[in-house]
Each structure stands twice: as C-alpha cells, then as structure tokens.
UniProtKB/TrEMBL annotation:
<dbReference type="InterPro" id="IPR036188">
    <property type="entry name" value="FAD/NAD-bd_sf"/>
</dbReference>
<dbReference type="Pfam" id="PF01494">
    <property type="entry name" value="FAD_binding_3"/>
</dbReference>
<keyword id="KW-0503">Monooxygenase</keyword>
<dbReference type="GO" id="GO:0016709">
    <property type="term" value="F:oxidoreductase activity, acting on paired donors, with incorporation or reduction of molecular oxygen, NAD(P)H as one donor, and incorporation of one atom of oxygen"/>
</dbReference>
<dbReference type="GO" id="GO:0071949">
    <property type="term" value="F:FAD binding"/>
</dbReference>
<keyword id="KW-0285">Flavoprotein</keyword>
<keyword id="KW-0560">Oxidoreductase</keyword>
<keyword id="KW-0274">FAD</keyword>
<dbReference type="InterPro" id="IPR050641">
    <property type="entry name" value="RIFMO-like"/>
</dbReference>
<feature type="domain" description="FAD-binding">
    <location>
        <begin position="2"/>
        <end position="324"/>
    </location>
</feature>
<protein>
    <submittedName>
        <fullName>FAD-dependent monooxygenase</fullName>
    </submittedName>
</protein>
<dbReference type="InterPro" id="IPR002938">
    <property type="entry name" value="FAD-bd"/>
</dbReference>
C-alpha cells in the first residue's frame, strides 16, 4: 500500500478484514494533524468505515440535515436528506480526526504495518509480483494499491499512466473557526454572490464541538492577510466572539488517470482522480475505490476469481471517476462561467430561483454499476437514472442495496463477508445451497427474506417478489435480480459477478 492517508488506511483495513497481510508506505515522517481538509462524509462511506472497524467516524461526526442555498441576501431554497437506516445521511468531521480514528483501527490490526519515511520512487512488475523501489531499498509485494495522493507523479510515470485534466485559476480560502452561531449548528449554507464576496461564492459547514468550516472563492492573485481574514469572518458572523483554528488557500484541479489498473498495481483516491470540491466527491469516491479494490484483491489472492475480476476494478472505478468529473464540471460551468452567455444564463437562473436549475454541487452519492461487466441486467428492473437531490436510488441491478434496519442491526452488515443470495417466497433455499456449494468456491451465503424478517416488511421495502433471487456483492451492490429464479440462473449471475462469463460453470 502506497500512502497512509484516509484512502490508503481504509484499503489496508478492508484487506486485513479479508485476512490479507498489508504493508503501508508513506513518504512523510509522520501524521500531519492540522486543518479540516476533507470534512463531508456521506452515509455509504460511513458504512464502509463501520465495516472496516472505524465506525467512530459516524459516531463523532456532526450530522447536518439541511442544505440552504442563497443568492445575495435571499434564500432560494433548501433541501434535506432522506432518512434511511440507522446511519446518518452525512456527517462533518475533520480529515485530521478521521485519520486518527483510522490510525487507531490500524494499530489494533496485527495484519497491518505502517512505515513512514518511505518515499516510493519506482515500481517494476513481473508475473509473480511487484518490486517497490524506495530509493536504494527494494520491497516485494504480490499487489500494490497506490493511494499516494495528487502528487504521486513518480508512481504514475512508472506505470505509464497519464493524468490529464485542468487546473482552475480562482483560489479558495478555507478557515476553521469556533463560534456560537445559533440556528446554524445543523445546516450547510451556500451563498451565491453575497455582498461580502461579490461575484463569487461562499460555503459554510457546521462541524463538531461548535466549529465551522468556511470556504471563500477568491481572486487568483489575492493573498489574504490576517486583517483580510478577520474582515471576511466578521462579514459573516458579525461581532460575535470567535477563535480562528486554521486557515489555508488552495486551487483545485479536475484530472483523471488514463488507467486505474496496470497489471498488479491499482490506483485509488487522489492518485487516480482529482475533483472540484463542490458536492464533496473527493474522499467520498476514494473510499469506495478502496472497498472495490480490497474485495477484488482478496478474491484474487485466495484463488476465488481471476483476471476478469481484477480488470473490473478499472472498468467500474474509472467510470465512477468519469461521472464525478462530469457532475463537477457541470457545477463549475455554473459557478465559474467563462463566456458572456454562461454568465447571463447563471444570473437569470439565480434571479429566477428554480431549485432544479441552480447548481451548487450535487452531493456525493455512490456510483451505480449498471453498465459493469459484473452486473446481470434485468429488463423487469431497469435503472431509472439519478434520483432527486438527497433521495436514494430505487433498487436495480448495479445499484447499492438500501441500508435498511433489521432487528439488531442493518441489512448491509450481512453483505460484507462474501456474496449474499436473498431469496423471496417460493424459493427452496436448501436446493440453492446444495447447487451453489458444488460450483462456487468464493464465500457465499443464502438467506430467505422471510427468515431475516418474518414480518414481510423487508421484502416489501425492497420490492422483492415471490420467486425472486437477489445476488448481492461483497460491497453491497446488487449484482443481479432474477425473477422465477432457479439455482442455475444464480450460478450464472455469480460467475459473471466474479469476472467470468455468465455461461462459465
């Protein structure tokens, strides 16, 4: 593992959960624990961290519920997250605290070793593994996951991977403050063109322990002084007392690696894609990279699957990165119009205040593997596209399973130990177990929905009908929904979900 940031540590924890020994290398001398950095973590990422042993992120984070959008001094609209399961839809927590929680989980895991001061300068591969060059030191691994961040040029160059995209001129000033702001404690606020930042945007997020994160879009050549920062904060909070905890400026990039898998090396997180910050799609896509990589590498290492499954990492996560770039690029065209026509349209939309037309950044959501080679399509359950903002997607092949509450737990907690077959009424689970056990070597469990929830409410909420079989992947995505299911049709779906042909035995 290259990189001990949140994506690298998440990958290590998830691999260790599958019994894989992991060595994590990081070029830094130790943990940098200052600044909020990436703060918004959505429900599906919290679910992954809970499975990895870092559920405290959800427990300690501040669960904000409402997003308000303003144009100058007028509120245009607000929206709230849909309630689902027991995990909050989103929490705000500093990246520094998230990393400490992950560090503690890693320290408790004997299968993981972290080595600081190890700068990876090159990679060479052969048929049996990867040689990792740390200056004159050479280390050997069966596979490598590169989570070394945006500045991992040497790693990408060693793999022959390009990192095309663009950088943006405008800067952003970030400030973490502690202040008493009644009514703001559970609300995200986005301001277009406020009088105290004319022509640009401001974003305000509540964080734990009475702290707030404020992002100002500022001019490319503006170098803020302490006086400038104080003035900008006062324009928002008035004469209330406050404490400035941290501040920084940054420019953002939109870039994507040409390949996210090169032989035995997988690229994940900022090493593979950089996104504009609107919608919090950075870390919220890096952690799903980690989960996707971890279960597929574990299956390959255990001989449960082969080349097709590993290659699907690139197919699925590169497609996810492209969608995130598309979504954030549309937001940027609205936030930072470059032509007269774009500026006129933006102004007209903001003055009209129609919520569906105002783009302040569609919040992070899981990528749905509808077109994945691992997914068995179902004409009876087509994918209907992105749901309205803040709402969950209807179940369909490729979509992540809803995280529904169960007696004593959550539905997704049943999905992390291998493939899961959920059977509706009129299915003989014993027959399915007998047939699947003869041809599938990968971990797989068969459960009847009526057995999991005798009230029938689980089947009703899923929309699962009699005679249906639902195949769920180890990352909780639905691989297939098969009507009038027999064991043979489920075997074909499992084979496909393992990266083989649907006709493979």
């Amino acid at each position: 593992m290259i990189g001990a940031g949140p994506v690298g540590l998440s990958t290590a924890l998830l691999l260790a959960r599958w019994g894989v020994q992991v060595l994590v290398l990081d070029r830094r001398p130790g943990r940098d624990s200052t600044g909020s950095k990436s703060i918004c973590q959505q429900r599906d990422v919290l679910d992954i961290w809970a499975a990895a042993g870092a559920g405290r992120v959800a427990e300690e984070g501040l669960a904000w519920t409402t997003a308000r959008t303003y144009y100058r001094d007028r509120e245009l609209f607000s929206w709230s997250f849909e309630r689902e399961g027991t995990l909050p839809a989103c929490v705000n927590i500093s990246q520094a605290r998230t990393e400490r929680i992950l560090d503690e989980a890693v320290a408790a895991q004997p299968l993981i070793e972290v080595r600081w001061n190890h700068d990876v300068t090159g990679l060479t591969q052969d048929a049996s593994g990867v040689t990792v060059h740390c200056g004159q030191r050479l280390l050997r691994a069966s596979y490598v996951v590169a989570c070394a961040g945006a500045r991992a040029q040497q790693v990408r160059q060693a793999l022959g991977v390009t990192f095309d995209g663009e950088a943006f001129d405008d800067q952003f000033l970030i400030c973490d403050i502690r202040a008493d702001l009644p009514g703001w404690e559970n609300e995200r606020r986005f301001y277009f063109d406020p009088v105290w930042n004319p022509g640009r945007q401001v974003l305000i997020h509540p964080c734990p322990e009475g702290t707030y994160r404020i992002d100002w879009q500022i001019a490319p050549d503006f170098i803020p002084t302490k006086t400038d920062i104080s003035r900008k904060i006062r324009q928002i909070i008035g004469d209330r007392p406050y404490e400035l905890l941290w501040h920084s400026t940054y420019r953002f990039h939109s870039r994507i690696a040409s390949r996210m898998r090169v032989g035995r090396v997988l690229l994940a997180g900022d090493c593979a894609h950089l996104l504009a910050p609107f919608g919090a799609r950075g870390l919220n896509s890096g952690v799903p990279d980690a989960e996707n990589a971890a279960w597929k590498l574990a299956f390959a290492l255990n001989g449960w699957a082969g080349e097709g499954l590993l290659e699907s990492y690139h197919a699925e996560r590169h497609a996810a990165a492209l969608e995130n770039l598309e979504v954030t690029a549309a937001t940027l065209r609205f936030l930072v119009p470059k032509t007269v026509e774009q500026r006129m349209r933006r102004r007209a939309v903001l003055e009209g205040g129609v919520a569906e037309e105002v783009d302040s950044g569609r919040f992070a959501e899981p990528y749905w593997y509808v077109g994945s080679p691992l997914t068995t399509p179902s004409p009876e359950r087509p994918f209907h596209g992105r749901p309205p903002k803040g709402r969950s997607c209807e179940p369909a092949p490729g979509v992540i399973l809803p995280d529904l509450p169960l007696p004593g737990g959550r539905l997704r907690e049943m999905c992390r130990d291998g493939f899961l077959v959920l059977l509706g009424d009129m299915c003989d689970s014993g027959l399915f177990v007998q047939v699947l056990g003869k041809v599938i070597t990968a971990p797989l469990a068969v459960r009847e929905l009526a057995e999991i929830d005798g009230t029938g409410s689980l089947a009703e909420r899923l929309g699962a009908g009699p005679g249906e079989a639902w195949l769920i992947r180890p990352d909780a995505h639905i691989a297939a929904i098969i009507p009038h299911a027999g064991p043979e049709s489920v075997v074909a779906a499992v084979s496909r979900a393992l990266g083989g042909s649907p006709d493979d035995p």
